[in-house]
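Ticket #4471: structure output looks truncated?

Reporter: J.K.
Steps to reproduce: submitted the chain below (379 residues) through the standard prediction queue, then opened the result file.
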Amino acid sequence: MKTQKNVSRLIEYRIAERIGQGKVILVFGPRQSGKTTLMHAVAEKSGLDPLWLSGDEPDIRGLLAEATSTRLKSLFGGKRLVIIDEAQRIANIGITLKLCADTLPDIQIIATGSSAFELAGVTSEPLTGRKYEYHLYPLSFGELAAHHGMLEEKRLLEHRLVFGLYPEPATRPGEERELLSLLAESYLYKDIFALGIVKKPALLERMVQALALQIGSEVSYQELGQLIGADKETVERYIDLLEKAYVLFRLPSFSRNLRNELKKSRKVYFWDTGIRNAVIRNFNPLHLRQDTGALWENFLVSERLKANHYAGRDVNQWFWRTHAQQEIDYLEERDGVLSAWEFKWRATRPPRIPNSFLKAYPGCRTGYVTAEMVETFLL
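Returned output as attached by the reporter:
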């Protein structure tokens, strides 16, 4: 298997196209997702010799925290491409980036951040109309299929469901368990704990474990709170933090026409199934698991969201369920067209779409996804 540095990222080309257009480029993504590797690839494609600055270095933080246009010009020298890594650690970074965009338009600034907490918050208002924003997730099915071929990647599907797609575990066979355990223990909550707003770290970890056991099921904040010993508001706040740290994401329920549709429910999925399995310490192969269906659903929903983002598709997405327990795994609306899919790891016959849904939404396109046909959904 080739190494991670050889895996081309789909978003690389979209970022490279924005170089030199007079706006700051922001790239958000979880730690260890390959942001630095991506930046090297973008810099090489641009043909420019970049200046690398890291928010992890105290002197760099000091230089950029209280910057003036004169100081910035001196710091950047004659470089036309400046890459600021871990920018969320720099005080007043939003104001500094705005200053760059306004006074140094010929210098392309790219800022990366491993969490959406500070960087997204402090750059949102100052950089209105002055930025392009992208998200980098763990490796995707499409990227790896392009890397070593569709047939090989489909053969590895079971492996991907168990060990996920973070770059290092996905490209270093035999070391997956050790690397995923390290990721889950050392990096998963690092940005959250750094904020100092989580008073009980053990409570957060218990909640993540509980959510890992509920993928594919509706999540009740109240019931989850009772399970881990927290109130509903704390549960919702912690889930919001975990979303911003790229640990997990929520999928809302779809409701428009039927009275018995669930209207304010949600499911919670992990961005990476390997991290999910590391949290519950279960790397068993699929034939020894009871959660294959849930893993397959999590994998497909997260991979579809990655594919939509990298392709620049503007879509809405939901699941559908009624109080009578009729359900559809995934719905998507794009350009006014509604589509619905059922997910089955293996299927001897096509799964049925509930008649009540078909009658309520007669124009909806329907389909299903199995392991044998996964590329039709993810590419």
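Triage note (M.O.): checked the attachment and the full token line is present. The mean pLDDT is 93.
Status: closed, working as intended.
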